[in-house]
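User: Please predict the structure of the protein below. I'd like the answer in structure-token form so I can feed it into my own downstream comparison script.

Assistant: Understood. Taking the following sequence of 292 residues as input:
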Amino acid sequence: MNASASRLAIYAGILLPALLLALLPACGNKAPLSPSPTVSQSGWPDPSDPLIISPDTPPIIDLEPEEPFPVASPVVPDIDWAPNSGAPIGKIPYGKSYTDAGVVVMDVSASYPSSAGTAIGSYYAGVLEDAAYRCDKLSEEAKSLRRNGALKKVFSYSEDFTVELDNGGIISIRRDLSLDTVGELPDASVACDTFRAADGAMLALDDFFTVPQEEYVNRLLYSVRKFISSNGEGMFEDAPAAAVEIFPYDCFCVTQSGLSLFYPEQTIAPQNMGVVRIDIPWEVFGDIWKMP
């Protein structure tokens, strides 16, 4: 299946991966780009294409230059990576088996972050409650399929998390989701949350940069382009243009070594590559990075 057909299946809601997106939000851009850019033969947006960008839409970035920003003297941010002195991030397990007439139709095995008595803890308690509700709804689909003789396999949903960073000021958490239903491969997704430790406020990419969005996104996309180029044949042909169109504004993690972006599966690469993670080192940002 080519790139266009793969994304069409996702967006049209033909396949059950759509149920995963309904279960918990997957990574992706917060707003679609409009209008669509003219794409050159190289696969990158044509810088001569006139675009009308509203204040509510992310910018289209010109990636034609080899290096769209000065990198002669990069500055690594001076950040204190001391251990977090606040409430530690714990784990809340959640598991359940759904049956129909004594037959198991769906298994759930998940764990969620916890932080007792904090805003972050309250947030994840809500995430767990919402996930449990949506698992209940998904199990009804499995029961219906079984009663109609169409349940090919037991539905399986799993979720776990990794604390990418937990220092005195920032907590950044990646959640890995997997739904196994009728496909040959489980459908994977990632959700990312980054908080200010002091008050539990959720942070966006804009909070970490001292320059306008267009400038810092340009630098990030420079690294994305290098990643796509280095993985050549493993990526979709239109991966460069797709990487701009669905830039993951709300799916990032802060780490000790830099910033990580996550592209949903079947957007810039085939499903067997899963969610694509692109790690971008501090040196790329020069002196435009800040700690909120």
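That's the full token string. Strands lie at 90-100, 103-114, 155-166, 170-180, 187-196, 252-254, 258-263, 276-281.
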